Each structure stands twice: as C-alpha cells, then as structure tokens.
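Exam revision sheet. Question 4 asks you to relate a sequence to its structure. Input first:
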Amino acid sequence: MEKKLIDKMVDRFLCWKLPMDFAPDCGISFDSHNGQCVPVGTNLLTATQAQQMFEHVTTEMWIKTTDQMPPENEFVLLFNANWRGVGKLDRENFDAEFDNECEQWQDETTDYIVPVPTHWMPLPAPPVAE
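Answer key, structure tokens:
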C-alpha cells in the first residue's frame, strides 16, 4: 500500500470519534484453552466498535479530480456519474487543441470515459504470495 494512502487512513483514524461506550481494558476476559489462560476480546474496542472504526477509516477515500489528478498512465479506480471502473489518465496522446477533454481518460480497453471522471483512488496492492 502506498505511503500516501496509509497517511490518509491514519489521518482519518485519528479523526474518528470514540464511541460513548468506549472502555479500554474492560472488554477483555480470559478463558482456559488447552490448559492455558487465553485472552478473549480486546482491551480497546468491541468487534462492533472496531468495525465502525474501519468503516470510518476506509470510506471517503475517493480523491476529487479537482483536488488532485491521478498519476499519468497509471491504472486507478475511477468514478463519474455513469460509470465506475479501472482506467487511466493519458495526456501523452492528448492534444488540447483538437481533442475533447474526455479523450484523455481511458478505461482498460482504451475506450474513452464519458463524462470525465470526477473522483479516483489508487488500486489496492496485489495479494502477496504465501
């Protein structure tokens, strides 16, 4: 995962409001498992609270094209009012004097994306081989 994306997720995590029932260290208990005491639960968040925190961190990760354009010729997730998919910004073959603005946005098959994307986000990293 790119550092920029991780930084954005950390910023969103730090903005997350703690739930009213937040009670560190009181959600943990110990059960016996194979003769050993094993912690059950978490000492910070309940499962529901953890889910809410991750939903908060990972939502609204879309970047407005008016705020920042994606890297040129790099496939990213793109969104417009009619379409969501993988595409890229290709200004290399774009001539502003003759071409329509949408001709710089292409999907994976090099078809033009119309209307132009309003938002984008980086693709996730590929899975790591085990």
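Marking note for examiners. The chain has two domains: 3-58, 63-122.
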